[in-house]
Amino acid sequence: MSFFTIVLKRCGIYIGLAGLSVLLTTAHLHAQQRQIPLDKLQSGLAFTGPEILDLQADDFANPALPSMDKGAKLWKQVAGKSDKSCQSCHGELSANMKGVATRYPAIDKATGQLFNLEDRIRQCRQKNQKANEWPLESDELLAMTLYVTSASNGMPIQVSIDGKAQSHFEAGQKIFMTRQGQMNLACTQCHDQRYGIKLFTDKLSQGQPNAYPAYRIEWQRLASLERRLRFCYTGVKAELPPWGHKDMRDISLYLMWRGQGLKIEVPSVRK
Ligand code: HEC
Ligand code: HEC
Predict the structure, then answer these.
(1) pLDDT of 79-104, one tens digit each?
(2) Cα-to-centroid distance, 72 and ligand 2 (Å)
(3) Which of 12, 84, 132, 146 sits at 20 to 30 Å (Cα–Cα) from 235?
């Protein structure tokens, strides 16, 4: 083999590798392309009927309002061994929790885990306030999550999928795109491909996360995004992971990224 052919071969390998890396980069970029472009993003509110719109807009009849009041009360209530309220440490909610809900789920620095806002509040209550635990889906936790989220009302969702969050994002995206359950349906088939279409009596929405925790009329209570997701799992007859499972956090991160730009909208009502 002449020196020339060796150089050529080497070049070939390098060109090949460069080509491969370009391909991989494109694949990576493609994986992060939105299924629904920014100008087509629509909150679930756009797909509900006039009764829900009226209820949500009504400053007295909105059934989620008592939970807002409860959250506001708890914010100021002294609790636990710290002998402090959330407010003692964090001050006025409207000023100091502004925008916080737009960037969760996020990686918790202490544990390296992906936390949604509920997880963060629970952890703060135990670690900093040193008070008794609020279980997932408890009235207290939902009310506080709603109240903290309300400080971000009207602000666009803006989550990070960099660093440690990236693998969670990819896992969430994979679940969203994969058919599952006895019905063999993927989230994307309903919420990317068929939104706006009538399913039974109601229109399918884009499955956006910007209104949670939301008051669901059918359940007669406030419910977390996780509870809504679990209901969609049940809808396709898929096996449910335990409450608080990583899968649920991963999907939530994917949903928030997918809905990036949509504005936080609480307190919301859903059928
Ligand atoms: C068979 C169709 C179907 C599939 C598959 C499905 N959903 Fe849903 N989803 C619904 C229906 C129906 C609703 C209630 C009405 C609406 O908002 O579309 C809903 C509501 C939602 C909502 C609440 C939207 C809002 O504004 O209140 C989210 C979020 C959501 N789905 C996410 C998911 C995810 C994530 C998956 C996959 C794990 C999934 N869905 C799979 C039909 C489906
Ligand atoms: C003793 C002081 C203290 C009390 C009481 C306290 N917190 Fe915190 N909180 C902190 C500190 C310090 C941090 C940031 C570092 C950390 O996570 O520990 C924090 C972080 C947070 C965050 C994350 C903010 C962000 O920017 O991501 C939220 C949300 C939060 N707390 C909510 C609450 C709520 C709700 C309560 C009441 C149930 C509460 N905290 C009570 C000290 C406190």
Answers:
(1) 999 999 999 999 999 999 999 999 99
(2) 15
(3) 146
